[in-house]
Design a protein that fits this description.
By secondary structure, the protein is mainly alpha-helical. The chain has five helices and no strands. The termini are far apart.
């Protein structure tokens, strides 16, 4: 069975897209046509069952006349589910420097 949504982040992005579309008063078919994406893809994205690519986000945002960044604003990697590594690049570099200093 396919999970009802791809991730918490995909669910939030989908809600933001749906809300912007409804605020404009256009249908999923209209958004599909204007963004040159399939209606199936638009439906999956709005339900959070599919996580959109950067290109797809930009296409949709352009049609909806919103900043693409607003569709992902406030999200973090934690919103995409469990990760085996929770490091940032700074954490990694700090650890590498500490290893070098300790080995010297």
């Amino acid at each position: 069975m396919v999970p009802p949504f791809h991730s918490h982040a995909a669910q939030i992005i989908g809600e933001r897209i749906r809300n912007a579309r409804l605020a404009l008063g256009i249908s999923m078919d209209d958004l599909s046509h204007l963004s040159e994406l399939s209606q199936t893809s638009i439906g999956k994205i709005e339900r959070g069952a599919q996580s959109p690519s950067a290109e797809t986000l930009v296409r949709i945002a352009t049609v909806l006349d919103v900043d693409a960044g607003s569709l992902i604003s406030g999200l973090s990697s934690a919103d995409y589910g469990q990760r085996s590594r929770q490091y940032t690049a700074r954490d990694f570099l700090r650890e590498q420097r500490a290893k070098k200093t300790g080995a010297s």
